[in-house]
Design goal:
By secondary structure, the chain is an alpha/beta fold. Helices cover 38% and strands 17% of the residues.
């Protein structure tokens, strides 16, 4: 059965590499001395390494804007739009965006830059490291419609990082109701934090209850786990493994990307 994944990526089980932008203006960790020149150079290095390593797509996020806001300041999306605008001609694969943790801002950024998809937490209420975390999927869906952005696919984090769902329902039930009530274009299944392994049994439950909605393994993918994850997941989003020594804070290395993509080609075959 064909899905929008086939239309966008034209490959079975696409691998989307993360371009983690450094802290941006307004963020506590922003390098004011290096300024936007340093941010742009970092983004260019990440995109170049990911594409040289052979990823099928790229997801650009403000991963180092820690601690995250659930209602971001305008400067964040504005800065990301500048970065993507300047680097857009160097992107040779489909790309998405994620303004952490703000679904509406992510949609706005996608519209402004021509991104094919966004990833965010669009449904549920959570107790998180960033406080009580509420969402409004109806508002986000209507915002996308008002922006004329039906072609921007919305990937919902069904098991968000650093947060616990307050609904008290089992994952299978939560998945079915999210698909029915929220009409996601994809469901992302995560571990505890960036780089943390995603439990295969959790992936299996989500996949079995997602119907025709594609399921993404969202964290912890490595060469030794990717084959098992892709038994259930329709795609993978990979960040930490692609970085030097597999450490979140380091830069992406093209050789590590190529190593994982080699395993993925075997899985596809």
């Amino acid at each position: 059965m064909n899905t929008w994944l086939d239309e966008v990526f034209d490959v079975k089980k696409p691998i989307i590499g993360m371009c983690h932008l450094p802290a941006l203006p307004g963020d506590p960790g922003y390098d004011a001395a290096g300024g936007m020149t340093a941010v742009l150079e970092h983004g260019r290095r990440e995109i170049t390494a990911l594409q040289e390593g052979g990823v099928d797509g790229i997801l650009i996020s403000n991963e180092f804007s820690l601690p995250y806001l659930t209602n971001t300041e305008p400067v964040t999306a504005v800065t990301m739009a500048r970065v993507i605008g300047e680097l857009r001609s160097e992107l040779s694969v489909p790309f998405g965006v994620n303004v952490l943790w703000d679904g509406v801002a992510s949609i706005d950024l996608a519209v402004a830059t021509g991104a094919s998809f966004v990833r965010e937490v669009f449904t549920g209420v959570y107790a998180s490291d960033f406080g009580m975390w509420n969402t409004d999927v109806g508002r986000a869906a209507r915002h996308r419609a008002r922006m004329g952005a039906s072609g921007v696919r919305l990937l919902y984090n069904i098991v968000p990082e650093a947060a616990a769902y307050l609904g008290g329902r089992e994952l299978a039930q939560m998945t079915r109701s999210t698909v029915f009530n929220g009409a996601p274009d994809g469901l992302c299944v995560s571990g505890l934090t960036a780089g943390a392994a995603t439990d295969t049994s959790t992936l299996k439950v989500v996949k079995e209850n997602a119907g025709a909605v594609p399921v993404f393994v969202n964290t912890g993918v490595r060469p030794d786990t990717v084959a098992e994850s892709l038994q259930y997941a329709d795609a993978a989003i990979v960040g930490t493994w692609f970085k030097k020594d597999g450490k979140f804070e380091n830069d992406v290395e093209a050789a590590r990307v190529a190593d994982l993509m080699s395993v993925v080609r075997g899985v596809r075959a």
